[in-house]
Amino acid sequence: MKQTALYERHKAAGARIVDFGGWAMPLHYGSQIDEHHAVRQSAGMFDVSHMTVVDISGADAGPWLRYLLANNIDRLPAVGKGLYSCMLNETGGVVDDLIVYNRGPAEYRMVVNAATREADLDWMHSTADGFDVTIRERAELAMLAVQGPAARELTAPLLPAHAGADALHLGSFESFEPDAPGEYFIARTGYTGEDGWEIVLTATAALTLWDELRAAGVQPCGLGARDTLRLEAGLNLYGQDMTTQTTPLESNLAWTVAWEPEERDFMGRRALEAQRAAGPSHKLVGLLLEGRGIMRAGQVVQTSAGPGEITSGGFSPSMEQSIAFARVPTKSDEHCEVEIRKNVVPARIVKPPFVKNGRVLING
Amino acid sequence: MSEVPDQLLFTEDHEWLRLEDDGDVTVGITDHAQAALGELVFVEVPETGAEFAEGDACAVVESVKAASDVYCPLSGEVTEVNEALADEPELVNSSPYEDGWIFRLRPTDATVLDEMMDAEAYERYLAELED
Predict the structure, then answer these.
(1) Which of A74, A156, A263, A340 is most buried, most CB within 10 Å of its CB?
(2) ipTM of the assembly?
(3) Each residue of A105-118: pLDDT tens digit?
């Protein structure tokens, strides 16, 4: 298994290590539920160095990204701005979801998923024919996510070269790169539904920052808490909630498709337009279990309009009940039933997020 | 290292059994089992009066990660269940041999208990699993 720069730090912190897409990653450091609450109530940190950072440059960087991505980088006029987007294939299926940042004239940075690294890079190269663009993977860089209501104030004093003050001015989905030795990239983004930063930095700097954050009382958090936090926050997980077999319109991601301007011919556009005109047969929704049990991916959901399937499910530590995402027929009404093992348990279709900024938004 | 109390009996499925004075058998999962499952968030106990054969799935323990069946270690009728687990499934993690018991059973044939592992045998079994 591949190890991140912080692997020994995880072991020292008592992590239970698991194989995650070929990476030896921490599942938890004792209690994934405590880690979850730390992020909702104070601050937690995640080693996300396994994620793939890809820097894009060249005269055609802009035109190529306008073709590659379903969202439109013209929504990123200012340097530092970030944008969430899907990368689609010809049939409108999702190859991956990512964040792309504007780093200056003809310079962009994309952060894509770890498990899809190879398929993503292959897809990027195969779509770049005829474009003057350089696609450079930055496997040597580490990445830390510090998340929670206290995350920014605890992290700011630890940033190099007085970057903390500037970092505190970042708006949501904004990034900046302080003028410091080595490389440092700070973005006000995350995958938890809480405020915080995601920081791309050198391996050496990551070790120092990890140690200083621990000393400041920031809770190390593993993949287990990352999953329950993103589920509560209504954030999709690639490979579970959307795949190459589903489009953004069937994945609660229609808002990430930039239809305007009409003349922008992005990959998958024709297929998506046809689906939009016909009306997608399925939609991705949130589920709140009204009886006892835990919903899990793969379970069948019976709705008023036919069967559907849970794509992600589990126990919400903030709500102390089971929540899920499910792909169901578009015409389904609010009430449904989930087949949990031998039981048929009533559930309610809701609109995620379930929890945001420490507050439960959906009433059980 | 898992805790393995002396006075209990054990199965290869990591359940423990305790023969009570009235002849009923109390069943739970071992410290090793709860540690392997991770933090429990839901326990489905059987119904009092239900009858099970040895090896039947009779309860479910669900952790943050996944659901696992608890298999009935011997045939019999359920006489009592641990109602506290409905609100506090984490008792199985914090107190697997005491407050985290799952159900009590009146055995059809108590002599099968003679074939179960004692603490020493279960410790050897755990050691073999780790090899």
Answers:
(1) A340
(2) 0.88
(3) 999 999 999 999 99
